[in-house]
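hey can u check if this looks right to u? its 318 residues, i copy pasted from the old doc so theres a chance i mangled smth
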Amino acid sequence: MHVAPLNKTADSISDKLGEHSKPQSPTPSRFFKLPTGHELAYDEYGSRSGYPLFYFHDNGSSRLESSFYHRSARQQGYRLIAVDRPGIGGSTFYPLRSCAQFCEDILLLANALGFKQFGVMSLGAGGVYGLSLAHMAPERVEIQLFLGGIPGNVFKQRSKSSYLTNFINSATPAMVKLLVNLKQTFFPVGAELSLRRLREYLSYTDRKVLANPRLIKILTLDQNEAVRQGSRGIAQDTALCFRKLDFGLQEVEVPALIWQGGADRLSQRSDCEYLVSRLPRANFYRVPNSGHFFFLQNMDEVFCRLRMVLSPQWASAA
């Protein structure tokens, strides 16, 4: 099948970024206006005629994170719709009560794009949103693809047996939001320094990956874009990622594929295994001799596996 690139800048992000010593965040190519008047910024990657996947970026990142998958998505026949969450990148900031509220806005965007059914794809903490959307709209979400583990603190349902436990669960997101705002205001850390610190924590395989200067520039571009509007968006997003799920994993019937690098230090194997053990229809794939950034070399395989569980018309077309 013929595949047409969706985003003219997607290929050049990895190829031409090396020309700039100080990367500057590109303007989002698309905006969706919500009924409230707020706008969601998003970019599309991969194949225009491919199977649609809404991409939920990791906490501390932006829609630009999806540029890592552009070439594989184009070659394998997938259309990625990467959306900045409120206050991140180019999206208008507005208060979110829960992940589900943002997922309702994603459904409005799906309607506007003409998608009756689609999949969700996420990296790290972004999986909380993908999981929430799959629970909310199982008649529309056909598949879940998780890269890395979801933070394990969200898995247990809100306890009804203890007033103190309920109070702690409800207060934790607000405290996290406050602490992130304070840190960003009084102890700001640039993207370059953050990446240097991150490299010290990562496994040997990931440190080798981060030795690539072009990759560092892409990650720097992404992190700078995430805080383009300041810390409010990141603080709110981090707080929501600490909020306990309002539903049980066993209630999510949508098939799920969970992938993790065998040497990943940013996500826990136990969290992935817990997710797989509770979701009714889930498979877990660990990539040996790879770390958090396993997807840089393995996305073709990931997308091929995904094709095996898609509906027949998409599986044959992808």
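Residues 250 and 279 are 5 Å apart (CA to CA).
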